[in-house]
Amino acid sequence: MSAEETPYRCTVEITLNVIGGKWKALILWHLAHRTLRFSQLRRRLPKVTQKMLTQQLRELEGDGMIHRQVYAEVPPRVEYSLTGEGQTLVPLLGQMCDWGKRHLGRRDAAGVAEKAAMACVAGRSS
After folding, report:
1. pTM reported for the whole predicted model
2. Which residues pair with 101 in a beta bridge?
3. Domain boundaries, position 75
4. 73, 24: one domain
């Protein structure tokens, strides 16, 4: 495919196509630190619906960012982890976390910045 035929005008579009939206970056962020089951992701993202989480996980799997491991057990156990390609996004996600802390700090969001920054740091260490 030549540069003229590509549907993207900017490589940032490609990145946003993969990690854009409200939940994908957060899913990747949580999976950057450990393998998680669906229910564990739901607990870490309490505002996401089951349908939306399922959809976002399928898209990330389709883009090669996460691996879905199904275990032949009763009840079935499914775990999600980052692929090698997904791991390449971890530095970018860390930079996004750091930028968010600085941005909130500049806005002096009356304690909100500190809470958000702690959640980000907690995500790195857990």
Report:
1. 0.79
2. none
3. 1-83
4. yes
